[in-house]
Design goal:
There is one protein chain. The longest helix is centred in the N-terminal third of the chain and has 18 residues. By secondary structure, the protein is of the alpha+beta class. It is about 25% helix and about 20% strand. The chain is globular, with a radius of gyration of 21 Å.
């Protein structure tokens, strides 16, 4: 903005900046869709300056869990809800809508994070065997926090909250890519962008470098297509940073993936 800009021009500029912030949620990329509703995701050289990285989960620990302890804590937390039946039985229950469900639609809630819970200085050293596990149940759109004991293999405490959306995991980001690839409007554009840069076919999310951030429907207030993402926050929704290894960025900033409903929406056009 120049010093001699009119008041009207200044107001318009601020409104445009605010609109862009609400649409892209600080991603700084611009999605491009071809005519006729067919997506043509343009490949960009890099995110615009000022684009922020997705926030990491920061926790205070009384000693970090090892990778083995984290896996075991997640297993204990998930098994406590899915029961002792066979994997086939649990899968059938998930398909019927019974029990907790992960991002891929399988049995058991989706593991998000494990940490060592804080303990008072006067607490017994035995509490060091405890782990706090965060999971997301896609069947009920609920964030579950469980405290488990790694020695006894038991769940000591469990709480459930609705409308709370921690940062997505890599596994969830890969599920979001699968939703895009399955979309008849958006999938061809992503595949075309990948093929033009690599000369190869895009067949798996593992071929991409992914980062992601949670998306809330309130961010799209006043934006075209806002109704399509109005349940985000209640539902588990994400936006993606998608990069071709050794190459450029695939532009997906206006695509919101509703993992709970397994569909993608384009906003802000």
């Amino acid at each position: 903005m120049t010093d001699n800009a009119t008041d009207k021009g200044a107001v318009d500029t601020r409104r445009r900046h605010h609109r862009r912030w609400r649409v892209s949620a600080a991603l700084g990329l611009t999605a491009v869709l071809a005519g006729g509703g067919i997506a043509a995701l343009r490949t960009a050289g890099s995110p615009a300056s000022g684009a922020s990285e997705p926030a990491a989960v920061v926790a205070s620990h009384s000693g970090r869990l090892t990778s083995g302890e984290s896996r075991e804590a997640s297993r204990i937390a998930i098994d406590a809800a899915t029961g002792s039946g066979t994997a086939k039985d649990r899968q059938k229950a998930a398909e019927k809508g019974d029990g907790e469900r992960n991002a891929a639609g399988g049995p058991g809630a989706e593991p998000l994070d494990t940490r060592r819970p804080l303990r008072a200085k006067s607490a017994s050293p035995a509490t060091d065997s405890r782990a706090e596990v965060q999971l997301y149940d896609y069947a009920s759109d609920t964030l579950i926090t469980k405290v488990v004991d790694l020695r006894s293999k038991k769940v000591l405490d469990s709480t459930r909250r609705h409308g709370v959306q921690p940062p997505p995991t890599l596994a969830e980001a890969r599920e979001a890519v699968k939703v895009i690839l399955a979309d008849r409007r958006l999938g061809p554009g992503m595949r075309e962008s990948y093929a033009s840069q690599t000369g190869k076919r895009l067949t798996s999310p593992a071929q991409l470098r992914l980062q992601s951030m949670s998306f809330l429907g309130s961010r799209a207030e006043g934006v075209d297509g806002a109704r399509k993402v109005s349940r985000c926050g209640e539902h588990r929704c994400v936006q993606l940073f998608v990069r071709i290894p050794g190459g450029k960025w695939i532009d997906t900033s206006r695509i919101v993936i509703d993992l709970s409903a397994r569909r993608a929406a384009v906003i802000g056009l």
